[in-house]
Amino acid sequence: MRKFKILILTLCVSVISFAQQTPGDKQTTAITIEGATAHLGNGDVIENALIMFENGTLTFVGSANTKIARKGTIIDAKGKHVYPGFIAPNSTLGLVEVDAVRATNDDDEVGAMNPHIRSLIAYNTESKVVESMRPNGVLMAQITPRGGRISGTSSVVQLDAWNWEDAAIKTDDGIHLNWPSTYSRGRWWLGEPNVLKENKNYAKEIQELTNYFAQSKAYNANKTAPKDLPFEALEGLMDGSKKLFVHVDNEKGITDAINFAKAENIKHLVIVGGYEANNVVDLLKENNIPVLLQRIHSRPNGDDHDYDLPYKLATQLVKAGILVGLENAGDMERMNTRNLPFLAGTTVAYGLSKAQALSLITLNTAKILGIDDKVGSLEVGKDATLFICQGDALDMRTNKLDQAFIQGRNISLETHQTELYKRYSKKYNNK
């Protein structure tokens, strides 16, 4: 009996030690941040800034020299920096916990055409991966499904919540389409050479998409047939309530995707990946199409590409007048999402200003996701989703957060990783 009690106590302590941090309480007292350098996210920077927010909403953003009464709790942030919360698009945060454990994997649905699959209801707010984003300033994410030709519908969440209903900032913001590849590799497991070759089924796969959209339009025109959830989900692309996020990298694919969207009368198109988007900037500008650029800490895809093309691609597109946001999808994408600010920082070394780089993960992304009325910049009337940093948040050496707020709530920056860091620091420091 004694051994049983010890076992139960050990299990309880383990659960408590590694539990998700409790979401912050709703803001009840006004908060004033004074003296910091405020990076607004819209290109402006205010030295010696004054920021005030109540009930989760920014009520004043300006100079600390302004003669105005300070309200509530006053935070002296002299010598520090304030930023809007960073936004991670095209992310599978909360959909997979441990890749090797199938029961924790819920990012890919069976089948090829799944526009009706909603990633939001599978989002796990208790994820330890999710909580590890916040100490780097990543406070929001677009939760995106994977797999198939049409993966499903994404939603935008804030990363400190009890459940997915509380987390949602914008539900069902868009449908994700994996554009057919113009090239394929040989099936080495069948003895074929593992080299790129033309995809002979490319035209056929596009025609299948065209037929599928035609069937959807016919169904939604009268809806007299038995209820069809996939077809109904596509209706939002036609009436403009949803955006179509096309995952495509090569020049021909991007061009064909744009022509497909125009032919189908899709009102809002976003290119995700866009590795060769610099070759079609005129077409993108002409059709006012933004790009969520692939992870820039990557090697070039082609043997004849510049060795630093992934690093300078954001600069090329921004200078061409394209609305650009950064994503961090790739190998280990969920864990690497925390490094999003450092991807933005890399673009500064390749031609962007710090203000432009910051916009790639704040206001630009908010505009692309359709949430710029709420977040993305420090402006009166928007959500008080922001953080106080000891230094430059785009530099991994100085990205050290003191406090963070989501919708005015003072959130925890502790994670299982910070707990382990403190634990082992004490072990070695006490020797």
From TrEMBL:
InterPro entries: Amidohydro-rel (IPR006680), Metal-dep_hydrolase_composite (IPR011059), Metal_Hydrolase (IPR032466), Metallo-dep_Hydrolase (IPR051781). It comes from Olleya marilimosa. Residues 318-405 form the Amidohydrolase-related domain. This is Amidohydrolase family protein. The keyword Signal applies. PANTHER family: ALPHA-D-RIBOSE 1-METHYLPHOSPHONATE 5-TRIPHOSPHATE DIPHOSPHATASE. Residues 1-19 form the signal peptide. Keywords: Signal. The keyword Cell membrane does not apply. It holds the Pfam family Amidohydro_1.
